[in-house]
Amino acid sequence: MTDWTTADIPDQTGRTAVITGANTGLGFETAKALAAGGARVVLAVRDTEKGAQAAAKMAGDVDVQQLDLTSLASIRSAADALKSRFDHIDLLINNAGVMTTPKGTTADGFELQFGTNHLGHFAFTGLLLDKLLDVDGARIVTVSSNGHKMGGAIHWDDLQWERSYSRMGAYSQSKLANLLFTYELQRRLAPRGKTIAVAAHPGTSSTELGRNLPAALQPALNRLAPLLAQSPAAGALPTLRAATDPSVLGGQYYGPDGIGQQRGNPVVVASSNQSYDMALQRRLWTVSEELTGVTFPVPVLS
């Protein structure tokens, strides 16, 4: 099926979905569609007031959980709160992200984009995983980006970009890390046979994510956006399909089917060759555990 839309989302009644960064843009559209489909949806957001405003615009069972992905303390607190509220979680959608920010660090000293987009979600997933394990049909969907192909590499010699800094380079690294994480997580989940890990990307979508792009690029982007970008609702479709389509397999990557995967219908797409490198996946996993102090209840396979 190539013309997949929200009308194809199966009944989500009885399912609980936790979505990071769900008060605006892609996350908002993802949450709204799942709630409309009957899911109980938790908006895991940094600003709970904005989260409440977003929840008020959605029909269905929607509430808010405070989560700041730039702080391991906040991540642990949010995970503890969710585990105390729910006996299981059916969907975890790692959607929140920052892009091409000025050089900065998280509360724990990680480069801001790597720390938020990858390490924050790595820790959050690991802390919640026991609520997703052995749950029929449970899925962990992590949102990456076409940006992972734009010179994306894991800079092992300067992982936190302390010696030099490239806004796009750091963003590309974080989005490549999302994919390396997803593929390694799926390999660890596979023997258990119930929970799967999937990735998605929105193509080019008109959201607030690009607010940190250099000012010199904005005029050109404003001219090109109507030609290249799709709406946040369309950009959310790959994530929604990855989260709900019964035909989805663990380790797949969903994105638009148009030219350059910039817009179009959500289908299975390929990520960069580098993202499938098992040695890189395992090395990043080990480093991520060391940096965050979070270990997963799924062992590495020999």
Automatic annotation (TrEMBL):
Keyword check for Oxidoreductase: yes
Superkingdom: Bacteria
Entry GO MF terms: oxidoreductase activity
UniProtKB keywords: Oxidoreductase
NCBIfam families referenced in this protein's UniProt entry, alphabetically: PRK05854.1 (NF004513), PRK06197.1 (NF004846)
Family, as annotated: Belongs to the short-chain dehydrogenases/reductases (SDR) family.
This protein's name: Short-chain dehydrogenase/reductase SDR
